[in-house]
Amino acid sequence: MTPTDLLPARLTDEEATLALGEALGKSALAGGVIALVGDLGAGKTTLTQGVMRGLGYSGEVTSPTFSLVQEYQGGRLAVFHFDFYRVEHEHELTELGWDDYLEREGLVVVEWPGLHPDLLPPETVWIELSHYEGGRRADLINPPR
Ligand SMILES: Nc1ncnc2c1ncn2[C@@H]1O[C@H](COP(=O)(O)OP(=O)(O)OP(=O)(O)O)[C@@H](O)[C@H]1O
Ligand SMILES: [Mg+2]
Questions:
Q1: Which of 35, 41, 69, 144 is most buried, with most CB under 10 Å away?
Q2: 131 lines ligand 1 (CB under 6 A)
């Protein structure tokens, strides 16, 4: 199963968002990068919670808005969950070790990647979540460059 098999998807309720994330998590490979585009409340963290479920991780998953990055260990892959929402300058991320996170054998997930798109490597899977008919939809998109 690849993202192309799973998307586009109509997500009628929160559980559908979790299930899509779960499928993405099950098929995720070490070194992968997932960029989650979408407005406030679009479902980026919910999708990430599903990814963690698919990786067999049972801990808490919230937007790392203030810490910028949250590391989850214990699932099939380590996950480095970033939120660029409050990042004003790219150097804040490079100082935090962005390049090292990309080199580690884990999965990188980024909320608000469109604020600093140049940091995302070419192999990044870009997914856009949007409000749609009372629920959400998810689409594969091109990098916003
Ligand atoms: N498919 C869906 N249909 C309806 N509600 C959903 C769906 N998916 C997620 N939600 C709900 O949307 C709300 C916001 O979701 P979430 O926190 O994941 O958004 P977010 O994109 O991470 O927002 P932020 O930009 O603030 O971090 C949650 O209450 C969640 O349950
Ligand atoms: Mg969020």
A1: 35
A2: no
